[in-house]
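Residues and backbone
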Amino acid sequence: MYQAKYIIYIGNFKISETIVTQWLIMLFLIVMSLILTRNLKPVPETKRQHFLEWAVGNLRSFVTGVMGERFISRVPNMVSYIGTILLFFALSDIVTLLGLRSPTTDLDTTAAWALMTVALIYIMGVKFKGPSYFKEFIEPTPLLLPLNVIGELARPISLAFRPFGNILGGSIIMLLLYQLLGYVSGLIPNLSIPIGQFAIPVPLHMYFDIFAGLLQAFIFSMLTMVFVSSATED
């Protein structure tokens, strides 16, 4: 029921609705970035530029507060990376309000994000500590190597299944609610329009599609920052 449908066929190559939705989100972000960053001045003169500088400044302060000034001074692009994750993740959940399938209800999507975070952990660990970073797998004793390896394997699994399970669960609840309201409306005589399906689900949409989606985006971004920064600490 919740397996992504294939909607584009090019020979034997099939593209699912999850991929198409992600393309639309990326296109939206690219277009908005081009529009919002057009004709910027060294000294802000428009409300648009004032807002952008305020948003970027707060994002940088937030990321720096979590990861530390030492890390951000060496990897300043991390601010842009975290901002992109937040926006893409949040929009991936909010698009359900437009009738589109949320990419986060597909495990392939969240697994890819989790693998990106894990790769970033190792890359930053080696960047800051060199090959000695991997000595942590046998500390404080080599006997803990199996447990440390299991812990590393559990990290991407946890990162992938947390948002996937939360968002998919909310989508299933909303689907069941719509089916129930449609059935109940059909029991009312002379009612051709299922009125209950229009009004009653609104508060739940506010929670599952907006609040829960933004919360999962924040949690994933926060865990990414914490895991990456902890890998670079002495």
Remarks:
- Strands lie at 6-10, 13-16.
- The helical segments are 17-36, 47-67, 69-74, 77-94, 107-129, 145-187, 196-199, 202-232.
- The longest strand covers residues 6-10.
